[in-house]
Amino acid sequence: MTSTVAIVGRPNVGKSTLFNRLVGGRHAIVDEFSGVTRDRLYGQSSWNGKEFNLIDTGGYVKSSDDIFDQAIRKQVEAAIAEANILLFVLDVTLGITDLDDQVAEILRKSGKDVIVVANKVDNNQRLADAAEFYSLGLGEVYSISSINGSGTGELLDQICSFIDEPQEEEEKEEDEIPKFAVVGRPNAGKSSFINTLIGEERNVVTPIAGTTRDSTDIHYKGYGFDFILVDTAGIRKKAKVHEDLEFYSVMRAIRSIEHADVCFLMIDAVEGIGTQDINIFSLVEKNRKGIVILINKWDLIEKETETAKKFEAQIRERIAPFSDVDIIFISVKEKQRIFKGLEAGIKVYKNRIQKIKTSDLNDYLLPIIQASPPPAIKGKYVKIKFITQLPSHVPAFAFFTSHPKYVKESYRRFLENKMREKWDFSGVPIRLFFRQK
Does position 25 have pLDDT exceeding 90, yes or no? Predict the structure, then answer.
């Protein structure tokens, strides 16, 4: 299972800047004023072959000091509840504050793996000042500057030391029941979808966004289907309910994605596809889960010529390059095309567990590679001699070649597209590895 790393600490110590540095992009809004981070931000990072989910837990500034202290404590407690590893970020220019002491006290009692990060260390004087943080009693202090990236390599090494060696997923028994997670922003109709399937008010359903707080497994069996459904708390861009509950719900939703085989991403047709929908899609893809996109409340949309085609084209453009995904327009309220969505989920599950013979892979792909070989780099000609599927539950393939490092991303996508033309991998992320022959 992918480890979850939460960045904790009081506001304005550089948590969002560190988040951007570790995920390799400017995903979090960064400003010199405290309390800028109000959205929950999620990303994925990898280092030396190990991957982990990363969550920015920026504080929410309130005018009252008492309320502010409570909000900070709840954020940290929520992070501790679900994260495996905690990065405790402090500002070396200010030293230890009362709020830092409060957070440290909670972390000392947590029993979780804690890494103390002294941020804004960009000269020798500040490096000496960082020694103050050893007095917190939380172990080694890692001095970094998230602005310029100094020290982050050593920090990543320490994070990865807490993560088990990467292992291929164990093969599942043939008769094991597939597990589907229903994910999406709040109020998209996830709980109503499950209630309609099972014919009872098993889950609390209200028009209020954020009603579902936890993840619940429901065994569904009927009409030729047999699988486990997981209704997850809605993942939203901005918290409109108590922020600690919102944060906890998001972390449980992420855990549900990690444990699922296939995810139904439910999108509200009235609101349209938003940035947070794309974030959820990316999270499912990066965890290499199968995915089906359900556009709910389609009955509320005024139809014109090719309305569905235009809507679908917009979605595929937003999720590119991984656009080989079933998009189904449903109405939970009117019970329209719900079972078509389930059929698509079963198909994606079968696509995800399919095994392709080595002889079939080589007979099909080697002639294509010979006709369109990888471009030569620095006078080096890349020759691919053999392909095989790796023994993992997630579709992964090894291409044995003379110069693995010279195979560019564009050629990898070319080979993936050729494989998708031959074999049905719709809704399934596949991995291609290039290894020395």
Answer: no
